[in-house]
Amino acid sequence: MWYQLGAALLLAAAPVRAATDALNPLDEANSTAPWPSSVYSNATDSDNSIVTAGSKSNQTSPPWYPSPWGEGMGDWKAAYTRARSIVSQMTLLEKVNLTTGVGWELERCVGQNGAVPRLGIPSMCTQDSPVGVRDTDYNSVFPMGVNVAATWDRGMARARGAGMGYEHKHKGSNVQLGPVVGPLGRAPEGGRNWEGFAPDPVLSGVLFAETISGIQSQNVIACGKHFIGYEQEHFRSAGNGFLYQVNESYSANLDDVTMHELYLWPWMDGIRAGMGSVMCSYNQINNSYACQNSYILNKLLKAELGFQGFVMSDWSAQMSGVASALAGLDMTMPGDIAFDSGTSYWGSNLTVAVLNGTVPQWRVDDMAVRIMAAWYYVGAGDNYVPINFDSWTLDTYGYQHFYANEGYGVINEHVDVRNNHGALIREIGAASAVLLKNEGALPLTGKEKFTGVFGSDAGASTYGPNGCSDRGCDMGTLGCAWGSGTANFPYLITPGFAIENEIYNHGNGMFQGVYDDYAYSEAESVAGQASVAIVFANSDSGEGYISVDGNIGDRNNLTLWHDGDALIKAVSSQCNNTIVVIHSVGAVLMDSFVDNPNVTAIIWAGVPGEESGNSIVDVLYGKVNPGGKLPFTVGYSRQNYGVDILYKPNSGESAPQLDFTEGQFIDYRGFDKHDVAPLYEFGYGMSYTTFKYSDITITKHNAGKYTATTGKTSKAPVLGQVTNDTSDYTFPDNMSRVPYYIYPYLNSTSLKTSADDPHYDEEGFIPQGAHDGSAQPLLPSSGAPGGNPELWDVLYTVTAKITNTGKIAGDEVAQLYVGLGGPNDVVKQLRGFDRLSIAPGQTVTFTVDLTRRDLSNWNTVTQNWFISDYEKTVYVGASSKNLPLKETIKDASQFN
Ligand SMILES: *[C@@H]1O[C@H](CO)[C@@H](O)[C@H](O)[C@H]1NC(C)=O
Ligand SMILES: *[C@@H]1O[C@H](CO)[C@@H](O)[C@H](O)[C@H]1NC(C)=O
Ligand SMILES: *[C@@H]1O[C@H](CO)[C@@H](O)[C@H](O)[C@H]1NC(C)=O
Ligand SMILES: *[C@@H]1O[C@H](CO)[C@@H](O)[C@H](O)[C@H]1NC(C)=O
Ligand SMILES: *[C@@H]1O[C@H](CO)[C@@H](O)[C@H](O)[C@H]1NC(C)=O
Ligand SMILES: *[C@@H]1O[C@H](CO)[C@@H](O)[C@H](O)[C@H]1NC(C)=O
Ligand SMILES: *[C@@H]1O[C@H](CO)[C@@H](O)[C@H](O)[C@H]1NC(C)=O
Ligand SMILES: *[C@@H]1O[C@H](CO)[C@@H](O)[C@H](O)[C@H]1NC(C)=O
Ligand SMILES: *[C@@H]1O[C@H](CO)[C@@H](O)[C@H](O)[C@H]1NC(C)=O
């Protein structure tokens, strides 16, 4: 069994750049160009879409130093006091130990740093994934992020976060590698979009923050990922991928406005919610690798957004030692340069770099403080549960140091951590189902004379629910997409099983299931007899280290898999009451069946996790009135989206250039901008009841004017002493070393010998300012975790009335959009939403507080938010296209 897990995981080994070009030069440090500005040029490209001046091939990312030291801002004060106190007692070796993973498959979790046994600090277990605990058993598979987005429900997002956090904690995992807002969902084909929420910064930001709060309420550090611009799988890593050789990861090229108003936005919410850790991504941003890009880590994340936790590399996304340390990386995972190379950019090398003066002591102190602060902030140490599982085998007995074959004993205790999470998973699954079409077919009663169920997506995989490693195949119903963002199923309730059970429980109906997608004549025969035919079809995607049916992570197309359209056609040709249920990672094309009069209902059910069948039964049979809404736009064609994956390298073997020329006009923002009619718009979804919107009001508050933050930071704290005697740092005598393991010690009293680096550079190139530990000027947009706290001042409160005009209780997701009014602004963007449960005949009030941030644009010159003089339009309604209420705000710029 282990080899199956092991084999797929090994594929995840990102081919790394040759060590020779990894350390020097500090690639971005030479650039003196400013961050790409965002003056929108009026040029149009051949697709007639607006080209932003700041998204050009080969553009560079400017240096930004020094790396900001954490100061214990906001509610981090107590955690920082504790962290500084313990780090003050640490030796350099102990601090370095905290920063460096011990190597791939050398401990039991997917990543573990070094411990500090002398001070009772254990090695932290960092473990996938954003849907549960990966690589173990007796755990739950929660609904994917895209389903959480479809619920538009803050409470459910938080409850799911708490459920996942609970499972991590009780397996002994201290850092959950999730949730995800990168990818945000630039292109609908993006392989990992489903791990995140929605291609909208507000919906994503709110749910990201709730999920983080839920996870961290269980004493587990949430690691938000992936920072940033990681919008596709193709070419995310250098090497001989599945088809093309590239020598560098792609560069996401984007401008300052797009960065702030779209991609960075949800990170503000996550940081404000206290996110303890951030994972930097594989890709480059403006041609500088994310884990050593000083502009995005030092400036945006730490200085501007005041991130107080630690930055962890994605697995093998670290590309240099000194450069990444100076650029703001705090922890490297899994720690070794290539998996099990026994070498590290940090470990001994970081000890050397401090001793030879290339990395200032305060920077390593800051790394250690940030790591320990996050640990204390969530209460991980005070509620510590020892690791009781192993990621590399499900066998009870095995090696603790798996790759080294050392430490034989019980490594899997098979602790059941599921609690009662199945009920929550079922509830979220039902709440996330989006009813797209209903010609009176739904809800069903269970007393239908003859129910036919069709498609492999209704049934089980012949290999079992975990038969394909990391869910890397599309067999049976789609309960979990593929890649590292997955977990093993404890069971998977299929739709066919649940529907059959439902009919059985009601007594007399006939039930026939045809689960072969290509058995057209058998399907037609059953459909011809059926009073209701329910066809299940899906579309899958995942992480690019697994290719499924030629889809290298990213989807090749937006059509249903296994010829789903043909099966729907076959069934609906024989049955005038055909219901289509789609399990998919995102938008699919529906034009072949949407207008077919025999297709009487369509439900998009996303990728709902282990309770899939029960969740869909709840909706089909009306036990739950559907209230989910689309967290993305369904277009008529893939061209409608105006953005696509780069499938072929465009820069020879050097870094493919992914130019975000669409700026922030992705998904509905792009459809609106180019006046393209969607089939089903962002925010759309029906109910078994009906709702009416009325009475919009806007109340202005006395918020006052915006204050740019001024002043200076403290100077970099230096904690404890580093001696100059290299013999203090060599391996302890008689220490028994685990083979391949990464340690902080020196091999020799010679630094150069210890580094064992042919490119050891006694001259050294240090970016200007990188060693400066003096007090630094504060950025105007900074001031607290998340950014300038005045951005959350409430300027206006909008209310509207919503009445349930039908006969049954239902949930309505009310939405508020704002048009900021400028010629380059998004036509209207989501700024508020609430999922409201409304009894028949009842009227409730929908209330949205509009903050300063909600009404602001990013000014690339002042490097701050501001409110433009343009009139703001506020829209309230049921979707991005159904906005019956409208009001304007003329005086918002008075708050500047
Ligand atoms: C950066 O500058 C260093 C030192 O001047 C030089 O050796 C190196 O080639 C430059 N790198 C780039 C990418 O221009
Ligand atoms: C682009 O168009 C705007 C509004 O029409 C105009 O004010 C601006 O000068 C134009 N910019 C360029 C670079 O032509
Ligand atoms: C570093 O971490 C390893 C693994 O957890 C541990 O064995 C070693 O004692 C630690 N070294 C120091 C100096 O704390
Ligand atoms: C130090 O880093 C260099 C790459 O920069 C690598 O070649 C070398 O093996 C590392 N040394 C150790 C001891 O891991
Ligand atoms: C200092 O040590 C680091 C880590 O081994 C090495 O990469 C760097 O070249 C060294 N620099 C100097 C100036 O000795
Ligand atoms: C789209 O991709 C799926 C999965 O690889 C495949 O089954 C289907 O045939 C493709 N559709 C088209 C139109 O090529
Ligand atoms: C609809 O179903 C009926 C059978 O009930 C069939 O005769 C008819 O051809 C179907 N129409 C379409 C468009 O498939
Ligand atoms: C659907 O087909 C059934 C039986 O085949 C028939 O009784 C019914 O009238 C048809 N309904 C419509 C709307 O055509
Ligand atoms: C970007 O750089 C690559 C490699 O140097 C080169 O092949 C390509 O033409 C450049 N692209 C542009 C648009 O300058």
UniProtKB/TrEMBL annotation:
Catalytic activity entry: Hydrolysis of terminal, non-reducing beta-D-glucosyl residues with release of beta-D-glucose
Residues covered by the Fibronectin type III-like domain: 812-880
Xref: SUPFAM superfamilies: (Trans)glycosidases (SSF51445), Beta-D-glucan exohydrolase, C-terminal domain (SSF52279)
Annotated keywords: Carbohydrate metabolism, Cellulose degradation, Glycoprotein, Glycosidase, Hydrolase, Polysaccharide degradation, Signal
Highest taxon above the source species: Eukaryota
InterPro entries listed in its UniProt record: Cellulose_deg_GH3, Fn3-like, GH, Glyco_hydro_3_C, Glyco_hydro_3_C_sf, Glyco_hydro_3_N, Glyco_hydro_3_N_sf, Ig-like_fold
Signal peptide (residue range): 1-18
Pfam family name, one: Fn3-like
Record's keyword annotation contains Chloroplast: no
Protein name: beta-glucosidase
Pathway the protein contributes to: Glycan metabolism; cellulose degradation
Similarity section: Belongs to the glycosyl hydrolase 3 family.
